[in-house]
Amino acid sequence: MKIIAVLNREGGTFRSLDIDKFCAQAREIFARQGHELDCRPVSARGITAALEQAAMDGDVLMAGGGDGTVSAAADIAWKTGIALAVLPAGTMNLFARSLKVPPTLTVALEALASGEIRNVDIATANGRPFVHQFALGFHPRMVRVRKNFRYDSRLGKMLASVRAIGMVIKDPPSFRVELTIGGKTELRKISALAISNNPYGDAPLPYAPDVETGLLGIYITGPLASRGYMRLMADITLGRWRSNSDVEEMRAREVGLRFPHLRKNANAVIDGELVPLKDEIVKIVIHPGALRVLAPGNRALPET
């Protein structure tokens, strides 16, 4: 196979690496398995164009970076039919975790070089694909607040997130949305909504351990005061969020959302990226087995 690796130079891990040395090592690892690897480091500004070009040049599109880079690559891979490989170099690397890609870059290269092509699920929100999560309410507000802080490292981003969460908890969001799930429509007032590409597992981090169930995970939190959010954040940190009485969990193949009073500055978070929420109606659908990926062959659990 010919693998085109597009590496986001500004991705968390790549910032501190000798990227030329890393590329040489990657080529050697894949060559031992009989594959050709073309390594293309680029700036964050040029990542989309580089991914699009790579999809035309090889058999596998490898995306090296954080969840935003991976999501952009998945969009291109899904639309072109090329296989996607994920090299975890971001802060959370949630889709990489779902694919059981080891978090250490050199170990990940070895696992992918001897991996296998398989089909996994991908979801869309009004046609825009996502591999991890579509979120409304608390999460978008936290990301928007975090943008006011400067950080230059993975740890810095995590600390900025903690600061932002603390600020949002003081004034939690609340909004109305008409939910259609399983053919039933209900108008709800909520503080947070997350819809995931396959249901979350039981780990403290919110990611799907199985991306081949053909189902969306739906997580709803009703209107909460500051104290309720503090308790929920504690339960998430301790990995016991499923026992929190304020969290409602459902599963479905399709979800309809309608916003009776959509604000002009409303936002959603899609795979970690803050995006404008412009449509009064949003249709979220899962597409079973529609995304081809190169993943570790043994599907072992990632390192912790």
TrEMBL record:
It comes from the Bacteria. Pfam families: DAGK_cat, YegS_C. One of its GO terms (biological process) is methylglyoxal biosynthetic process. InterPro entries: ATP-NAD_kinase_N, Diacylglycerol_kinase_cat_dom, Methylgl_synth, NAD/diacylglycerol_kinase_sf, YegS/DAGK_C. PROSITE patterns: DAGK. GO terms for cellular component: cytosol. Residues 1-129 form the DAGKc domain. Keywords: Kinase, Transferase. GO terms for molecular function: kinase activity; methylglyoxal synthase activity. Gene3D superfamilies: 2.60.200.40, Probable inorganic polyphosphate/atp-NAD kinase, domain 1 (3.40.50.10330). This is Diacylglycerol kinase.
